[in-house]
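To: structure subgroup
Subject: Chain for Friday's discussion

All,

I'm putting the inputs and outputs inline so they're searchable in the archive.
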Amino acid sequence: MATFKSGKEGGITISGAVLCVSGWSYTEEITPLDTSNTCSGGFETVIAGMKKLTGQFSAYWDADQIPSLDPPNIVAGAIITQMKLFHGPIAENKFALIDDALIISVAMTSDAKGLVSYQVSFQSNGQYTLPV
């Protein structure tokens, strides 16, 4: 039987601090290394190179938890440590762990009929662990 999880409980922690987000996503990628040669019959062949995790999360700007303060230190160019992306309730302890993540970009949005929000793009900087 399937055990599905609701995204409404999937949070993020950075260095142990809970970050209230409106959503997150990540993608595990490898760098394909071309091994094509004269014996590959006219077809391109590849092997897997380096692995990385890229992702993003969105949140509403909160004056009581300003994202650029440390923690969580969410500014472009910063390395944040121990980022956990929870697959369900935090209490269930199922998460992707990124030991170090480089913040690539932080985009702010202000809508006259909505909330001020921000979107963060990140990439793993070294080792990460996916949930099992």
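Points worth raising on Friday:
The chain has one domain: 7-129.
Strands lie at 12-14, 17-19, 23-34, 46-60, 79-86, 95-110, 116-124, 128-129.

D.
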